[in-house]
Design goal:
alpha/beta; five-stranded mixed β-sheet; disordered C terminus
Length: 188
């Protein structure tokens, strides 16, 4: 009886391994290969960062962003809620920052999320400048929305620059054309 049970367990293990291999989770699967290539490219991008930003937990990442803001002369840096903070830029304008750390390899920042953040930050928080930090890919649609709304997008490349000493003010979208957002008053 024990031998029969052993053979049944061995057969079950063999069937499980066969099902796994037959499920398409092999190097021959073009979708899996694309996912592996995307992960490899992502890991290469993150290796350029001077600190292990991608490995930070949410509270550590939030404090790191706050420290970068303070380094660049921002005052009254306050956490609004998880993933968002406000501060005053050196020129006196109120800024709202948000971030999205967890992104799938093939995803982009949701355009709806950008619009919602920008609208809420300006209407509810009184922000004159909106900044969105993302550790994931950005598509053309996200860039078009950000440009239209004058929302500053900081992706991995711009974050690397910010971390290496470029000031936040230098990364901001220039003030052109959007009425009501220039602290000194727009003439439009």
């Amino acid at each position: 009886m024990g031998t029969l049970l052993g053979l049944a367990l061995a057969f079950g293990l063999i069937v499980a391994v066969f099902r796994y291999l037959a499920s398409g989770e092999s190097e021959e699967d073009p979708h899996l290969t694309a996912r592996l290539q995307a992960k490899f490219k992502r890991s290469q991008r993150y290796e350029r960062l001077p600190e292990p930003v991608f490995d930070m937990g949410a509270p550590e990442f939030e404090e790191y962003i706050a420290a970068l803001c303070r380094r660049d002369g921002c005052t009254d840096v306050q956490r609004v809620r998880g993933g968002q903070m406000t501060s005053y830029l050196p020129d006196g304008r109120k800024a709202a920052l948000a971030w999205q750390r967890e992104c799938e390899d093939s995803s982009v920042v949701d355009a709806h999320r950008l619009r919602t953040f920008d609208d809420a930050a300006r209407a509810v928080l009184g922000a004159e400048v909106t900044i969105f930090v993302v550790l994931g890919p950005l598509d053309e649609r996200a860039h078009r929305i950000a440009t239209r709304r004058r929302l500053t997008l900081i992706d991995v490349d711009r974050l690397e620059s910010w971390m290496k000493g470029t000031t936040l003010s230098a990364l901001l979208v220039p003030e052109t054309g959007r009425p009501g957002t220039n602290r000194k008053g727009a003439q439009d």
